[in-house]
Amino acid sequence: MTDHPTEPTTTDSEAEAVRWTTPPTDGGERLDGRSAALVSADRILTGRRGQVEGSLETIGIRTSSLSEVEVTQARTAGQGGAVLLRGRDILAVGTTAELEGHLAELLPDVDPNDVVRVDLPGTTLMPGLIETHDHLPTSGTDVEYPDYGPHEVARLTLNAARAARELLSEGVTSVQSLGARHYVDVALRDAVDAGDLRGPRIIASGPQITTTGGHAHHAGGAADSLDEIRRQVRHHHLMGADTIKAMATGGFMTDGSAPWFAQFTTEELRVLFDEAHRLGRWTAAHAHGTQGIERAVRAGVDYIAHASFVSAAGRSEFDPHLADEMARAGVYVDCTIVADLPGIIAADPTFAPPARQLWEHGVRIVAGHDAGIPASPQRAYVGGLQALDSVGLPRTEVLLAATSRAAVAIGRAGVTGVLAPGFEADLIAVAGDPSQDLAALHDLRLVVARGREFRPDRVEGLAASQAPTEAVGPSATLAEWRERSARAARHPEV
């Protein structure tokens, strides 16, 4: 895999000599991923922290201190924010006046008049959003492992391609796939990298490594001994996976799988993660229950999905000492805060995830939504960020969790997630200021992936669901175990 596929170049003299049967077109894209371009807006959120605690680094105009008239005057004076791109990369970030004044030295071989200019008044430029936990091939299905019969690989691939475009249409320019049968995500990653399909940068994992009959065993990654675990990791490496994911506990979506019980020993997980790291691969663990979280952290995992601390009693029982251990280990965590979660919590408060508590203990929270499983569609990404805000994570932290911190969490530090020289040109423009209101992220005005503009597809809206009147999904699993415990408690001593 490469983040920099070679682009063919054609000189002006060669272009003039070409006799076109079908001339090339730009498809309406203002940024082609090859030329120099200056993109300007009211302000830039760079993806870094600001100098004031709890703030974000902002370049340009701060709407909270200026009237609409003053904003217009400031933009006219070149005080808005701007990003200078060349091809796939960011060359400079600053105010519009600063970059316009230094074009000659920044682009010594380009006539300033030939620089493409895209001006977006009333908007904020920021890094492209990042989904750290996705299941691309099963997107839009009613069950996590649909049966497509003899056309399974083809249908899963088509699902994944559609999901990739839907993510990009929501402003998501990078995604970590954490479970895909037949390594469909690896193939899609390579097609996107080659420019054959449009989609976000894909970090692929292939099938999850689990136990026989364990959570997600349908994906085909079962291993029951240290040798089988090593073989699975090496096979994933051979097939081109970027991230090696282990199912450290059971899950809610697999019958007969208890989310609060660990599936692997600490030794087994250590062998798995050590082997993956030896091969230069990122590691992730699905872990709901405390025992599985603890084992994964002590085995050296990089990323944990869920970390819900769900106990056999059917509720989240936060462990502050384990949270401190997670923080010291530097593990990145997605608490799977999906758009519908506030309604679920309203109906069953015991299922509230400990995102705020983990953050208060110094754990690095990122934006992962288990997207692609039933009831968590790709188009609900921004709703998931708003839900993360609603469960107590400060808005500044939510934006970092969706951009710069998320980039590190998927193993792409220094590549994306920040608007700064040397990073790839993954950026979006939204109407308004998301640091003041996350709803601004719903109003996209520009999507740029690796320097090339993407015109979003039409995406159907998603109505907010009402709080369920009876247990559904994970809550149903919890309710079943609770009822079983209650019945056992009523039985007389004999």
UniProtKB/TrEMBL annotation:
<dbReference type="InterPro" id="IPR032466">
    <property type="entry name" value="Metal_Hydrolase"/>
</dbReference>
<dbReference type="Pfam" id="PF01979">
    <property type="entry name" value="Amidohydro_1"/>
</dbReference>
<dbReference type="InterPro" id="IPR011059">
    <property type="entry name" value="Metal-dep_hydrolase_composite"/>
</dbReference>
<feature type="domain" description="Amidohydrolase-related">
    <location>
        <begin position="124"/>
        <end position="443"/>
    </location>
</feature>
<feature type="compositionally biased region" description="Basic and acidic residues">
    <location>
        <begin position="480"/>
        <end position="494"/>
    </location>
</feature>
<protein>
    <submittedName>
        <fullName>Xaa-Pro dipeptidase</fullName>
    </submittedName>
</protein>
<feature type="region of interest" description="Disordered">
    <location>
        <begin position="461"/>
        <end position="494"/>
    </location>
</feature>
<dbReference type="InterPro" id="IPR006680">
    <property type="entry name" value="Amidohydro-rel"/>
</dbReference>
<feature type="region of interest" description="Disordered">
    <location>
        <begin position="1"/>
        <end position="32"/>
    </location>
</feature>
<dbReference type="InterPro" id="IPR051781">
    <property type="entry name" value="Metallo-dep_Hydrolase"/>
</dbReference>
